[in-house]
Amino acid sequence: MWLRFVLVPGLTDDAENIAKIARFSGGLGNVDRVDVLPFHQMGRFKWKELKLNYALDNIQPPTSEAVETSLRVVSGRGAQSLLIMRSHPAGLERDSDGKWKGG
Predict the structure, then answer these.
(1) pTM for the full model?
(2) Which are the contacts of 80, defined by CB distance < 8 A and separation ≥ 6?
């Protein structure tokens, strides 16, 4: 089984929260990997088009350092293996500030 964890600054990036996810996944005994997925704003336009309030509108993507810290917490707390989304399926890459660029 694979678990996917979206890293959202200010919501899911607390070290204890990440440690609990890692302990939980490690305790299941059948988790092959934990994906740490950095939050992005690629879907923001959908909310605007639907004229819905988007509660995450002012949230910035996590920095590369925050993602790496999360990976260390996950790998140190029982996750059997992990993968990080370092590039975006649309061909975007992260810049030095951890933001998506290109495309």
Answers:
(1) 0.71
(2) 25, 26, 31, 32, 33
